[in-house]
Amino acid sequence: GAVVSQHPSWVICKSGTSVKIECRSLDFQATTMFWYRQFPKQSLMLMATSNEGSKATYEQGVEKDKFLINHASLTLSTLTVTSAHPEDSSFYICSARGSAGYEQYFGPGTRLTVT
Amino acid sequence: AQSVTQLDSQVPVFEEAPVELRCNYSSSVSVYLFWYVQYPNQGLQLLLKYLSGSTLVKGINGFEAEFNKSQTSFHLRKPSVHISDTAEYFCAVITSSGGYNKLIFGAGTRLAVHP
Fold this sequence. Notes:
The complex is a heterodimer of chains A (115) and B (115).
Chain A: E1 4-7, E2 10-13, E3 19-25, E4 32-38, E5 44-51, E6 57-58, E7 67-73, E8 76-81, E9 90-97, E10 105-106, E11 110-114
Chain B: E1 4-5, E2 10-14, E3 19-21, E4 24-25, E5 33-38, E6 44-50, E7 56-58, E8 64-68, E9 73-78, E10 87-97, E11 100-105, E12 109-114
Parallel strand pairs in B: 2-12
Antiparallel strand pairs in B: 1-4, 3-9, 5-6, 5-10, 7-8, 8-9, 10-11, 10-12
């Protein structure tokens, strides 16, 4: 149980275009979803927290107009990187948490490369 | 806000030797601690967690950790490592900010098991 999927697993896009990453909880209802960013050989940095049906809460320094997060249902959250640039290239990981407890379940990650 | 410090960025060890990966947390009344493992180009897998109760926590793959309140530590140990344990290990703590509980990660420790 407690499986989280991400799609796509990797994506290459051209500079200036937008790309959407999906995060789904497959066998539980995720009242809260989190988006992390990880640069090579570095730790995970929390970008934003989203609760189903409400606006996401962004961490300091994260551009909310660039990284659009939508959590429209209890099983799906999306991260859209708008007007992507090469510096947005990174590994993006989502996680999901149910209504009870503290444990987060992580997706397999999405490798974004902007050329 | 809570934080964790992983003192060792890399730990080389020979196969079948014991290993300890160190993690210290900032002191607080309530603390919830986790250890995750990340294999290359993959998401995070939960090894073990401490929420309350026994200070010695046993996890998957033969790992265990001990919660030490007086030393504010939560070190990860394994008595005999395998080549397959080569991975990045992250210590994490739950912190509350702005009404949300968030998982904050340490910088990570790269465990390299040599034959």
